[in-house]
Amino acid sequence: MIYIPLFPLSLVVFPGEELRLHIFEPRYKQLIHDCVNNNSTFGIPPYFEGKDLVYGTELKITKIVKKYDDGKMDIKALGIGWFEIVEFYKIMHGKLYPGGQISRMPWDDTMDLVDALKLRSLIEELYSIMKINNIKIEEIPTFRSFQLAHKLGLNIEQELKLLAISAEKDRQLFLINHLENLIPIVLEAEKLRKRAELNGHFQNIKPPNF
Question: pTM score, two decimals?
Fold first, then answer.
């Protein structure tokens, strides 16, 4: 049986992703202290109204960035894997914070080169259409799906599905399919925006010759 402290938050964290958190609630200050003192991990299960806690990401604290006089902290943590929740406890025995029994799931970071190149190209195309030029896209071979997963127009349901995909090759295909559906919609929206901008302007349109 694997039991770990849990820190439910309204976000999806992917293995490999670095997370920065400001810790201010007494129960979670205790959680962080326990993890540091025991050199242990904690989990963040995505919590959204009306949804059960099913999956989560296991994180290891990498740095206490700042400690405040009142006990609050700024921390950095790294996602190291994902898990399914077997049983959730609102309060762990003898603690202030939640916890749970979990089952660690496989996580494979081995990419497919051809699909990685295709995915990277689609991301560049999307950002070009949207005139986004301030987001860094890693070069092959360090490029991985989790790096930009939050910046590709996925909704919460899609992010949860992506979290539960164990193999990087399958995550690449998931995002490729998403972008191939999204890009035509964004292109059409961009055309609509340009047409709307023309409203009220003098237009130089050449009529046909009959």
Answer: 0.86
CA 28 vs CA 13, 15, 71, 158, 159: distances in Å: 17, 21, 11, 28, 25
Say whether both 28 and 96 belong to one domain. Answer: yes
In total, how many domains does the chain have? 2
- Mark whether 23 and 57 lie in a shared domain: yes
Domain containing 120 equals 113-198
Arithmetic mean of pLDDT over the chain = 92
Instruction: Report the sign of the C-alpha dihedral through residues 133, 139, 140, 145, in that order.
Output: negative
- At residue 57's C-alpha, the angle toward residues 6 and 171, to 5°, is 160
Q: How crowded is residue 102: how many other Cβ atoms within 10 Å of its Cβ?
A: 23
Q: 124, 137 in Cβ contact below 8 A?
A: yes
% of the chain with per-residue pLDDT over 90: 86
**Nearest-angstrom CA–CA distance, 47 and 142:** 30
